[in-house]
Amino acid sequence: MDFLALNSSQPHERNNLQQLSEETLNGKARQLQDEVIQYKAAHEGEINEIKSRIREVYPNEVVQQLSPGIRDHIKAGVQALTKDELKTQFPRLMPVSLKQQLDDTDKQLRKAKNAFQNSEARSFNSSIDIVDAVTRNEQLKLVSRPDGEKSSLWPADLNSLFAYDPENVKKLLKDYELPIDKAHDVNINCFLGYIGVKQQLV
């Protein structure tokens, strides 16, 4: 046997074995790392799925499993709480009802319309000459009461007004919420000035 050849080949074989062992170990290590990554990924997916079911699926399943009576009871309770909350909060948010707002707006519009019509009537009456109006029996332009209505004592012309006795003139002034004096002529002049007639009785 050639001991020299045998001895010279042993280091080479040892090197081959050492290299093979390192490659094998490295491969095993990489395999283990891959398995760990795959295992972690798989379990993370399962964990995320469980979290998703807890957040989304299970509540619906719990509701579905409740008896109809319990579901109706819960629904009625929620509706009652909502209704009570609306009753409490709505007056604070809407202190004036819509109907009240519409009524107030309608009153303001009627008041503005009455003021405009009375202004036009006074403008017309301001051009009246008392002597000519009495002679020609000229009609007065209607001036409405403060509430927008026509007074039942409204005189159609100056002749009608001058024919009123003191008591009817006082009632006329009261109807228009005007001050009443003891003197009949003062009361007549007060009414004439109110409806726009510039001339006064002497």
Defining traits:
7 helices; mainly alpha; 0% strand; 2 domains; 202 residues; 75% helix
Topology:
Blueprint: H1 3-65, H2 68-93, H3 98-125, H4 130-136, H5 158-163, H6 166-175, H7 184-195
Helix pairs in contact: 6-7
Average pLDDT figure: 76
What's the oligomerization state? Answer: single chain
By secondary-structure content and strand pairing, the structural class works out as mainly alpha
Helix percent reads over 70%
Low-confidence stretches: 1-11
- Reading the helices and strands in chain order gives HHHHHHH
What count of helical segments does DSSP give? 7
Distance between the termini: 169 Å
- The dominant shape is rod-shaped
User: What is the rounded Rg?
Assistant: 53 Å
Number of domains: 2
Using DSSP, what is the number of strands? 0
Estimate the strand proportion: under 5%
Specify the biggest β-sheet.
none
Descriptive account of the structure:
The structure is a single chain. The protein is mainly alpha-helical and 202 residues long. The chain has two domains: 3-93; 99-195, no CATH class. 75% of the residues lie in helices and 0% in strands. The chain contains seven helices and no strands. The protein has helices spanning 3-65, 68-93, 98-125, 130-136, 158-163, 166-175, 184-195. Helix 6 runs parallel beside helix 7. It starts with a helix and ends in a 7-residue tail after the last helix. The model is unreliable at 1-11 (pLDDT under 50).
Task: Sum this structure up briefly.
The longest helix has 63 residues. By secondary structure, the chain is mostly helical.
